[in-house]
Structures are given as structure tokens and as C-alpha cells.
Design a protein that fits this description.
single chain, elongated, alpha+beta, 1 helix
Length: 48
């Protein structure tokens, strides 16, 4: 996506921290969107 600014959404952040710092998920499905200003935002994907 070639950008300098990447942001993680609140939903994705809560998924990452759901089980705490000692047991993060090995893999999560995400959806990455680039807005008009060139900022990339990471959202949780469909499915598990």
C-alpha cells in the first residue's frame, strides 16, 4: 500500500489483546483499507 501512516482499529486491537500479553492469537484475519488521505487502516476480517 506504500504509506508511512498505518492505524489499527479498536476492534482489531481488542482481538489482539483478548487473551492478554502472554497468549496473543497466532493468526487473525484482517482487512486493510486505504482512505483518501493515504492513511492505511487495519480492520478485522470476515470469518474466524
Amino acid at each position: 500500500m506504500k504509506t508511512n501512516e498505518v492505524s489499527i482499529s479498536e476492534e482489531t486491537n481488542s482481538m489482539l489483546w483478548q487473551r492478554g500479553i502472554s497468549k496473543p492469537p497466532r493468526r487473525i484475519r484482517v482487512r486493510v483499507v486505504k482512505d483518501k488521505e493515504g492513511k492505511v487502516i487495519v480492520f478485522p476480517g470476515e470469518g474466524k
